Amino acid sequence: MALFIKGVNYEYITEDLSNKSELLVSSNPVHKKVPVLIHNGNPICESLVIVQYVDEFFAGAGVPSILPADPYERAIARFWAAYVDDKFFPAMAGIVLVPTEQERVQKVKETFAAIEPLEEAFAVCSKGKAFFSGDSIGYVDLALRSLLIWIEVIRRMCGLEIISASKTPRLAAWAERFGETAAAKKVVPEADQALQYGKKLQAAASAAAASKSK
Amino acid sequence: MAGAEDLKLLGMWASPFVLRAKLALSLKGLNYEYVEEDLKNKSELLLKSNPVHNKVPVLIHNGKPVCESTVIVQYIDEAFAGTGLSLLPSDPYERALARFWAAYIDDKLLPSWTKTSRGSTEEERAEGKEQSAVAVENLEGALRECSKGKPFFGGDNPGYVDVILGGLLGWVRASEELYGINPFDPAKTPLLAAWAERFGALEAVDPVIPEVNKLVEVAKMMQAKLAAEAAGASN
To answer: GST C-terminal domain spans which residues (chain B) (predicted)?
Structure first.
C-alpha cells in the first residue's frame, strides 16, 4: 500500500512460507519473515520500518507523505501504529491461533477491549476528516488497514464483529471509505482467499498444540 | 533553546525505558524537569497524560504528552533537530537499519531476558537463556554492521540504537551481581562488551545510569516478595 501511494513500481515475489526462498532467507537472516523490501540490492525488514523507509526515500514535491511533517503529529502516529502492532494485533491473531476455547474467549475479550482506544483515537487524529492522518491515507491508516482483512476473516470464521457500525461507528465508516480507495482496490487480497488461509493457520495451530501435549 | 519549564519527564528511577528518554535528553544537551512517579500510586498527571497505558516514561513538551520510549526518543531527535547530536542518521537506508535493530531489542532481546530471569518454569527459563544467546549474537553482528569499526552503533557518535540498548545498561550491570551472568560476555560478544564500557563511560551517560547496588537491592526485594507469595500460595 505504501509503495502504491508513492507511485513506485516494484517487482512482487510471493513466498511460500513453508518453503522459504534463498533470497528471503539471505535478505532477512534474523527473522526469515516477510515482508522484505529489497531496494538496489539493500534489504529492509519489518513492515513499519519498510513503510517509513518508503516514505522517506520516495519523498518530494507532489508526492504524498505517509507520515506528517510535524514532529508531535509524527509521535502520535508512531504511538498508535505501535499500539496496533503491540496491543491490538496479538489479541486479534490470538483468536485464530490459540488452541483452547478458554484461551480464545480471553483473546476475544482482549480484542474488543483493544479496539476501543482506536475508535477514540480516530476521532482525535482525523479531526473530522476521512483518515487517521486527515485527507489522505497515512501511517496509522496503513498499520490498521492491513489487519482489516483478518477482521473480516474472523467475522466469517467466528461470527465476531470486531469493527461494527453499532459499537465502533467511526472505524466502521473509515473501513468502508478505505475500501473504496484505489490503494485498497489494487492491493488488498480477497477475503475468500484470506479465509482459506486463516482456516489453514488455525488447523496448524491446533495440531501443534495437540502434538505438544502428547 | 528550550528552558526547563518546556520539557517534563515523568519517570521511575529504575526503569530502563525511562533511562532511554533521559539518555536522549542528556545526549542532546536538553534541560528538563524530572518527576519521579510512585507506580503504586500514579499521579493525576501521569494518568491524564498516558490514559491508554498509564505507564512511564511520558515526555511532556509544552504541555503535550509523548508516550512509549522509542517514540519519545525519535520525537526528541526530531523536535530538537538543530540541537546537539543527531540520533538517527540522515540516510534513509541507515535509518531503516537503526529502526530495525531498535525493534529487535524490544521484540526479541528484552523478552528473552525477561523469560530467563522470570520464567515460571525451569523449561521456560532454559528456553529464555537459549533465546538470549541468539539475540545477543545477532546484536553483536548488528554492532559490527552498523558501527563499521567505529565506537558506536551510530558511528563516531552515539545514535538511536545506542540509546535504545543503552537504556538497559543499569540492569545489564546489575545482572552480574544478581545472576552471575554478564549478558554482554566479553568472550562471546567482545564488541558489545567493549561498547557497554565505552557508552557507559560517556560524560552524558555515566551520571544518568542508575546505581547498580540500588538496582540490585530493588531486584532482591522483588525476588523475596515473589518467593513469599509463591510460598504462601502453596500453603
So the answer is: 91-222
Q: Domains in chain A: how many in total?
A: 2
Residues of A with CB below 8 A from B66's CB? 72, 75, 79
- The model's pLDDT over B123-174, given as tens digits with 9 standing for 90+, comes to 999 999 999 999 999 999 999 999 999 999 999 999 999 999 999 999 999 9
Shared domain check, A15 and A77? no
Residue A86: count other Cβ atoms within 10 Å of its Cβ. 14
Q: Are residues A84 and A190 in the same domain?
A: yes
Domain boundary among A32, A57, A82: A57
- Judge if A77 and A12 occupy the same domain: no
Contacts of A78 in chain B (CB under 8 A): 68, 70-71, 74
Residue of B nearest to A74 (CA): B75
* Mean pLDDT in consecutive groups of 10 residues from the start of chain A, 214 residues: 94 94 96 96 96 96 94 97 96 91 94 96 95 95 92 90 95 93 82 84 83 68
Query: Quick one: A7 and A78 in the same domain?
Result: no
Chain A contact present for B134, CB below 8 A: no
Specify if A209 maps to a domain.
no
B7–chain A Cβ distance below 8 A for any pair: no
* A49: containing domain: 2-57
Give the burial string for B121-143 (b: 16+ CB within 10 Å, else e). Answer: eeeeeeebbebbbebbebbbebb
B121 part of contact set with chain A, CB < 8 Å: no
For residue A87, give how far its alpha carbon lies from the nearest alpha carbon of chain B (Å).
10
Q: Is residue A76 part of a domain?
A: yes
User: A43 and A125: one domain?
Assistant: no
pLDDT in tens, B170-208: 999 999 888 888 999 999 999 999 999 999 999 999 999
**Residue A156: inside a domain:** yes
Residue A20, exposed/middle/buried by CB under 10 A (0-12, 13-18, 19+)? middle
In a domain, A196, yes or no: yes
Q: Do residue A19 and residue A116 come from a single domain?
A: no
pLDDT in tens, B36-69: 999 999 999 999 999 999 999 999 999 999 999 9
Show residues of chain B in contact with A79, CB under 8 Å: 66-68, 71
Cross-chain Cβ contact B68/A79 below 8 Å: yes
Question: Distance (Å, rounded) from C-alpha B55 to C-alpha B164?
Answer: 17
